[in-house]
Description:
By secondary structure, this protein is an all-alpha fold.
Amino acid sequence: MTTVDGTAAPAAQAGAARPARPSRRAGAGASAARRRAAWAGWLFALPALVMYAVFELYPVFSAVQYSFYDWDGIGVASPAGVQNYVRVFTEPQLVASIAHSFVLILFFSILPVTLGLVVASITREIRSQFAGGVARTLMFLPQIIPGAASAIAWTWMYSPDGAVNQLLSALGLGAFTRTWLGDFTWALPAVGVIGTWLATGLCTLLLLAGIGKIDASIYEAAQIDGANRIQQFFAITLPGLRSEIGVCITITVIAALASFDVVFMSTQGGPGYSTTVPGVQVYQLAFTENRVGQSSALAVVLSVLVLAIILPLQRLFRER
């Protein structure tokens, strides 16, 4: 190698022009460090994994195992094959409980998400920070109250001389008063209203957070183009909340299908079986009727049903 004037360059300069190769020892050290970091991560996660395996995975596998047996929870279990699963889809009482959970989707999911969209859009227009904060607080209050306590409070309100009937009488609608939770026709919708009240606040706050990430200049441009509030809602707000709506629907649909505390504390599945849902039915089969195998089969079917509904919803609301 020569210089500009034609003289030979020193060998050291020629060697310096080539990048230095990492030594094998350095590469082995970096690989060992990565392995130690990975093992350290697993060690930190180990307690949580053990707890998850003991309190989540083991009960799931046990329920699947019990579902193939006829067992009262105390004596000797006898194999039942798939008879427990056949009864889930043939016994009218069990089929009705699954149907009731789908009815509750209207009250636990569709109504709260719809109301949440409306309330979030209205709250966005509130310019006062104090008024907006008060509105958010009032909407979120039901979320900090346990479902069982909410069900008890609503049970008092639904009583013959409760707040609901008193309000109807005050409005001149006394003909519509009734024992709401004791009526075979209206008991399930009455329980559904409790779920609507509980879920609307959460949906509203999630949707408000989603509206906050939409660029305000888009709304300003739409106003300049002459779009009214309704047009802005369908053209800007609704498409911009695709992922948030998906989260709300996912959470509330699971709550509807797996509902237990609200139904159990308000009606315990009555009157008759008019408000029985799979969660309450699983409890009653296992601890009241001593049909642990049948209870496990219904629980497994409920889990599969939740996954069969939630997974397509996740793909539907995935952001593109």
